[in-house]
C-alpha cells in the first residue's frame, strides 16, 4: 500500500492561544499506565539477571535523557543473564522530565511484573521494555497494546474509518523522515469531528522501517479503533494516539483538511484481540505473548499535563 502525499499547511497562530489555556486548566491526574509481562521466564531475586537489571536501571534513564532524541537502548551482562532494554520519551518531552520518568518506570515495572524476564510498560510520556531476548534487532510493531475509548463518534459511520486511515496515511511519512521520528497533527475536515493525533517511531529505525511499522498497525487500528472517539496503539517500535482534544505540547506540526478518498480493504483475521476494561490492566492477567491486546478506557481521563514528562 502506498502512502498518499500529505496535506501540509501552517497552523493558525490563534490555535496556540486556544490550546495553551486549555493545557493549563487540566488537572493533574494519576499517571495512566499499561504493562505487559511474560508468563514464563522468571528470574530469582538473588540472580545475576536481577543484578544486571539493576545496573541497567541506574544507567538507562541518564542515557536516554542525554540523547537528543530522548531514546536509549542497552545490553547488559552475558548469556544466560543478558538483559536487553529500550526506552523512549515522547517527542514533546524534555531531558529532565524524561530521566525522572524512566527511573520511575523501572521501579513500576519491577512491581508490575515481579520476577519476569520480559516486561514492558507504557505511559503517556514514555515507555520502557526489557527482555532476555534480543528484541532490539526487530523493526516490527511487536505485540501492540490497543487502548480503546469506548465512546463512538456520533458522525456518519461511513467516514469513521476514513478519519483514522487519513491520520495514519498523512502522518507516517512526515514522522518517519523527522529526526525524532515524531509528528503531531490536527485534522479538520468538513462536518466530521476535529481530531488530534501523535505518531512516533523509535528513533533508531530508518525512515523506511518506521513507515512499515505504521503500515503494520494500520489494519488493526482500523479494526479495533474505527469509529472510536480516541485510542492508542502502543508498540515496541512505533505507536500512535488520537483524541478529540489536544493532548500534546506545542502546535500540531501538520494540519489535515482533506479526507483520503477511500480506505483500502483490510484483513481483519490477522490478530485476535483481548479486551480489558481500563481500571483493570495492572491487576489483570497479562495478555498471551504475540497477541494483540485491546484495553478499554472511558473518556478523556488521561490527559497530557505539565507535571509529567
Ligand atoms: C539464590 O537463593 C536460593 C535460595 O534462597 C539458593 O538456592 C540459590 O543458590 C541462590 N542463587 C544464587 C545465585 O545465589
Ligand atoms: C551482570 O551482573 C553480574 C553479577 O552482579 C556482574 O558480575 C556482571 O559484571 C554484570 N554484567 C555487566 C556487563 O555489568
Ligand atoms: C459503539 O459502536 C459499536 C459498533 O457499532 C457498538 O457495538 C457499541 O455498543 C457502541 N458503543 C457505545 C458506547 O455506544
Ligand atoms: C473488519 O472489522 C471492522 C470493524 O469491526 C468492520 O467494520 C469491517 O467490516 C471488517 N472488515 C472485514 C473485511 O471483515
Ligand atoms: C492488511 O490487510 C491487507 C488486505 O487484506 C493485507 O494484504 C495486509 O497483509 C494486511 N497487513 C497486515 C500487517 O496484516
Ligand atoms: C489475511 O491474513 C491471513 C493471515 O495473515 C492470510 O493468510 C490471508 O491470506 C489474508 N487475506 C487477505 C485477503 O489478504
Ligand atoms: C520539562 O518538562 C516538565 C514537564 O512537562 C516541565 O515541568 C519542566 O519545566 C520542563 N523543563 C524544562 C527545562 O523545559
From TrEMBL:
Record organism: Aegilops tauschii subsp. strangulata
Signal peptide coordinates: 1-32
TM spans (from-to): none
Protein name, as recorded: Gnk2-homologous domain-containing protein
Domain Gnk2-homologous: 31-135, 141-247
Pfam (any one): Stress-antifung
InterPro entries per the UniProt record, alphabetical: GNK2, GNK2_sf
Region (Disordered): 277-298
Compositional bias of kind Pro residues: 279-289
